[in-house]
Recover the amino acids of this structure.
């Protein structure tokens, strides 16, 4: 048993990196736009399908396909923000309308992709799946290493961008106080659009990575969104650090506990932790913004 | 009396429907519509009157269905006992889940109910000894037969079952109408609009929200019991998140904040799959699109649209 632990920890970090990539987009969109994007999992699913088409139909090399996916899903996120979220925001709706509209979008995309491609399980052909690295008694494919490296790179880029770039500063200003940000001349429409762009790019890249490692199927978005909610709620809605810590934590917990108990009970535990956090500290462990009312 | 007349005509027309369209296929759709009306109207209390989005209504529907089915299959209770007990058990579950969930609102309430929905389905799937898990629970008895002055009415047949479900639906509609029309409706709306102000006027927002939530979930349990004894087979697939979303879509398309709205939404979304049969799997794509369009362009749903139209048609200076 003990000798498996290093392997389990490595697997947990790989799984956690995926959760972090997906949860970051969700938490950014919530923190800055105040929208809980229930269709975020579908962006991830579309990412996997775009990468699949790029590799198997256009014959692009896999690394290039990931870049293409980021661009295409990013554009898709921009369109979503422009067409759906912005036209709803103009009507100054009750907050649950955002949830409703993204739930509708999620259903639309899930069944739309299902209608076009069918529910079959596919896998993006990746050359990195065949290369296995091993040291001591830990084995991992280059694909898994790639997942962790891409996650580290993107998290570092995002952290730098949010902290030091002009647009990043505008984002943080908008998140802190929308009205005040507008008064000092922040173009909030541009901030919202960029947030959606970044969030959907991250989800799309995660999809392109997972679609090669596990399977590419229309329902993959539903499986991940639930985990992403757990991560975002526990880490604190709107908190980048929180999502990173909670994402890696959930990944590690699932692989370590998964060695001793069935996966279904893990999901029940995950949901229970989420609800417990919502009750005791709705802003999450690292969150500061918002909070539950009433 | 005059105000009751149109409703009476509508009810009579609905009662005559399965006699006119007496093919089993049409009767099946009508029974499904009645069950969906109970579900949508009950969800409408949460969505329209306490103003929260519950994504767990399908779970309470499932709790009612499994309670009723298991009480009849394993304990051997008759339907007249299993039905009310399923209503009570769904209501009790609503109360237990309501204690934590109702302390939250907005996004957080929606996410918490999403979590509960997930837990309930996972429990149904994994408590294999009790529920037979993903294989589903077959062999659920029909509500049985009623001996009435020498006539024997079997509720295993579609026509009597329709009238049974219809009677339950009418009771539910009257109950919800009375709940919302008198004291509580005003209090619910006051809580929805401004819970602090409502509290200062002597309304207790916590109690109001809990009352609405428990009644809503209990009624979902009633629908679940009817469904279980109608189809005689239930499986976790019928009570998933997509079912909850489907029910939310009914309420939103019909129009939240009314009783008629969810009713119309339920009828449309039950009938639509039959009209859209040619579209096959595309129908869910259309639901998603409809949900988005309605939320953006017609936030008050079909009922709101019709009201707007009526007001525009009304003479000026009114």
């Amino acid at each position: 048993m003990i000798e498996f632990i290093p392997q389990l920890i490595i697997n947990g970090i790989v799984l956690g990196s995926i959760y972090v990539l997906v949860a970051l987009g969700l938490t950014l969109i919530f923190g800055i736009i105040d929208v809980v994007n229930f269709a975020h999992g579908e962006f991830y699913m579309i990412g996997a399908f775009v990468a699949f088409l790029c590799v198997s139909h256009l014959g692009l090399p896999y690394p290039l396909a990931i870049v293409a996916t980021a661009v295409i899903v990013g554009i898709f996120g921009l369109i979503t923000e422009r067409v759906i979220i912005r036209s709803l925001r103009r009507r100054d709706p009750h907050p649950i309308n955002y949830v409703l509209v993204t739930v509708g979008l999620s259903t639309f995309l899930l069944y739309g992709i299902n209608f076009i491609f069918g529910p079959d399980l596919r896998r993006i052909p990746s050359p990195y799946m065949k290369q296995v690295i091993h040291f001591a008694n830990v084995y991992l494919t280059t694909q898994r290493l790639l997942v962790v490296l891409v996650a580290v790179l993107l998290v570092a880029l995002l952290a730098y961008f949010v902290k030091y770039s002009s647009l990043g500063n505008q984002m943080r200003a908008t998140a802190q106080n929308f009205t005040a940000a507008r008064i000092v001349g922040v173009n909030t429409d541009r901030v919202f659009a960029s947030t959606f762009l970044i969030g959907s790019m991250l989800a799309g890249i995660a999809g392109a990575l997972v679609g090669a490692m596990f399977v590419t199927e229309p329902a993959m978005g539903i499986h991940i969104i639930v985990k992403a909610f757990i991560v975002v709620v526990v880490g604190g809605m709107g908190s980048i650090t929180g999502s990173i810590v909670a994402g890696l934590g959930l990944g590690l917990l699932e692989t370590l506990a998964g060695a001793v108990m069935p996966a279904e009970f893990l999901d029940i535990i995950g949901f229970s932790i989420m609800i417990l956090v919502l009750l005791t500290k709705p802003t999450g462990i690292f969150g500061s913004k918002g909070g539950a009312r009433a | 009396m005059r105000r009751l007349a149109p409703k009476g005509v509508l009810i009579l027309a609905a009662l005559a429907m399965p006699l006119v369209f007496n093919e089993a296929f049409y009767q099946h759709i009508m029974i499904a519509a009645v069950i969906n009306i109970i579900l949508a109207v009950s969800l409408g209390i949460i969505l329209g009157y306490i103003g929260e989005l519950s994504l767990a209504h399908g779970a309470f529907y499932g709790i009612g269905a499994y309670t009723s089915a298991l009480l009849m299959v394993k304990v051997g209770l008759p339907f007249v006992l299993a039905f009310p007990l399923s209503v009570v058990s769904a209501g009790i579950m609503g109360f237990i889940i309501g204690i934590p969930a109702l302390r939250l609102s907005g996004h957080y309430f929606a996410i918490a109910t999403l979590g509960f929905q997930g837990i309930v389905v996972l429990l149904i799937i994994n408590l294999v000894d009790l529920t037979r898990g993903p294989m589903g629970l077959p062999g659920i008895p029909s509500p049985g037969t009623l001996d009435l002055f020498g006539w024997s009415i079997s509720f295993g047949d579609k026509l009597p079952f329709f009238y049974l479900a219809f009677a339950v639906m009418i009771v539910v509609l009257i109950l919800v109408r009375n709940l919302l029309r008198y004291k509580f409706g005003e209090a619910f709306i006051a809580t929805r609009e401004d819970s602090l102000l409502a509290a200062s006027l002597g309304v207790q927002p916590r109690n109001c929200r809990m009352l609405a939530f428990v009644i809503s979930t209990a009624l979902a349990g009633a629908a679940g019991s009817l469904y279980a004894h109608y189809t005689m087979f239930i499986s976790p697939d019928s009570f998933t998140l997509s079912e909850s979303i489907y029910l939310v879509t009914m309420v939103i398309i019909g129009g939240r904040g009314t009783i008629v709205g969810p009713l119309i939404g339920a009828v449309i979304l039950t009938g639509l799959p039959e009209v859209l049969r040619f579209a096959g799997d595309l129908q869910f794509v259309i639901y998603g699109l409809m949900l988005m369009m309605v939320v953006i362009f017609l936030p008050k749903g079909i009922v709101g649209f019709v009201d707007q139209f009526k007001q525009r048609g009304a003479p000026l200076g009114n």
